[in-house]
Amino acid sequence: MSVTAREKLLRRINDKSARIGIVGLGYVGLPLMLDFSEAGFPVLGFDIDPRKIDFLNTGKSYFVHIPDSRVASATERGMAATTQYSRAGETDVMIMCLPTPLNRDREPDLSFVIGSLEGILPFLHPDQLICLESTTYPGTTDEEIKPRIESRGLKVGSDVFLVFSPEREDPGNAQYSMRNTPKVIGGTTPACLEVGSALYGKITEQVVPVSSTKAAELTKLLENIYRAVNIGLINELKMVAERMDIDIWEVIDAAATKPYGFTPFYPGPGYGGHCIPIDPFYLTWKARTYGIETRLIEVAGDINTAMPAWVVGKAADALHAQGKTLECAQVLVLGVAYKKNVDDVRESPGIKILQTLQDRGAVVCYSDPYVPILRRMREHDLKLASVEIDTALLSRMDCIIVATDHDAFDYAFIQTHAKLIIDTRGRYRGNFENVVKC
Ligand SMILES: NC(=O)c1ccc[n+]([C@@H]2O[C@H](COP(=O)([O-])OP(=O)(O)OC[C@H]3O[C@@H](n4cnc5c(N)ncnc54)[C@H](O)[C@@H]3O)[C@@H](O)[C@H]2O)c1
């Protein structure tokens, strides 16, 4: 009896001879590639950025939270990277970790996913598993990926296998890694799900199968929408509490003592990163094609995106109370990464605060040990480099805005020497004359 594609692939996965290709070696793709290498699989990475390929092939990391030694060990084990899509023909598994941003009309932009798929398509062959990990709207895998693969004459479910398995990468999280974070997966057919589950079961303790790729796609969106909506809620409550002269941080701490039915979310200067500000609008867009308006998601988005301007307004008010104007002030922004202890500035509220301050005429600078210079971005070109914090700098500044609460900052030292601090992260819990909680 001839061996089926499914049996062949399962055998190669089980004896770890299956060659794993990862397309898109960013915040998601690189750690995944290392996980498979550390689990004993041969791995080959694909990216269009030759700088990343050079780094990896010489055993170096380009992310602060991934040490060179981890990449170097994988390179010694044979891990390699390439810009050549033609090498997709050498792999048994192709996992796609491409960006899924919004376009200028705030609609899903699948061009990175489709562009790379078109690139590897001529080299796909029978007995291959294709996985999509990029966050996207329900229906993408079956409506956009499957027909393109089948246009090559490969039948999904018998010749090749297709799954969607959303990434849950949390850069910088020391407690949860791929191994101890359950991995959700949906297959286009039951055979796809079986093959995909066998693969991910090699790098994670718990695979969570769901009945379709659509269900897996919506699972990821639910996780991120849950965060976006709750962040919007707490930012709204923060503004109410401030008017009522109530400390929202005290209230959250008190509410969090409830042992059931409450999960604390914390206010801040707005939200950032590649996921939370973007992903909810993938669902909003798709829901509209079904005639449904996702009002709660939209309102949370409005509240969160208004936060950087609200913070700048608070800074202007506090300066005014000291007889100064924002337009003539020198302002230091502490932290421009979108969250603490990482180097990612995508969609960061700290950048939006800097931009708004600059637009209003303030003299701005920033300090961020993870972001030595601010490169040109799609919507911002601030031409700034991180400054060192010392007493001379702190006493020169009219205002300091804590936008990202990196652990590396010496908050007591900063408070001792600052004229005015706008604290958006609840870093200063007591009462200080020079601190405005915001
Ligand atoms: N960053 C996170 O923490 C995180 C967490 C969960 C899910 N996600 C999702 O995972 C996906 C990837 O996000 P990311 O943060 O890794 O993005 P990223 O921008 O860090 O990495 C994407 C990589 O893809 C490469 N690339 C772009 N076009 C390409 C092409 N045509 N061919 C090959 N490579 C190409 C880029 O050079 C880059 O290295 C997104 O859908 C995102 O929403 C991200």
Question: What does it look like?
Answer:
This protein is an alpha/beta fold and 438 residues long. The strands form two sheets. An eight-stranded mixed beta sheet has the order 3-2-1-4-5-6-7-8, with helices on both faces. The model has no long low-confidence stretch (mean pLDDT 96). It is 39% helix and 12% strand. Nicotinamide-adenine-dinucleotide binds next to helix 5.
Q: Outline the low-pLDDT stretches.
A: none
Overall pLDDT level? 96
Give the H and E element order: HEHEHHEEHEHEEHEHHHHEHEHEHEE
Widest beta sheet: strand line-up: 3-2-1-4-5-6-7-8
Q: What is the count of DSSP helices, taking H or I runs of 4+ residues?
A: 14
Class by alpha and beta content: alpha/beta
What hetero molecules are bound to the protein chains? Answer: nicotinamide-adenine-dinucleotide
Topology:
Blueprint: H1 5-14, E1 20-23, H2 29-38, E2 43-46, H3 50-57, H4 68-76, E3 80-82, E4 93-96, H5 111-120, E5 129-132, H6 140-150, E6 161-164, E7 183-187, H7 190-200, E8 207-210, H8 213-243, H9 248-255, H10 280-289, H11 295-321, E9 330-334, H12 349-359, E10 363-367, H13 391-396, E11 399-402, H14 411-417, E12 421-423, E13 435-437
Parallel strand pairs: 1-2, 1-4, 2-3, 4-5, 5-6, 7-8, 9-10, 9-11, 11-12, 12-13
Antiparallel strand pairs: 6-7
Helix pairs in contact: 1-7, 8-11, 11-12
This protein binds nicotinamide-adenine-dinucleotide (NAD).
Please give a quick description of this structure:
This protein has about 450 residues and is α/β, with parallel strands linked by helices. It is about 40% helix and about 10% strand.
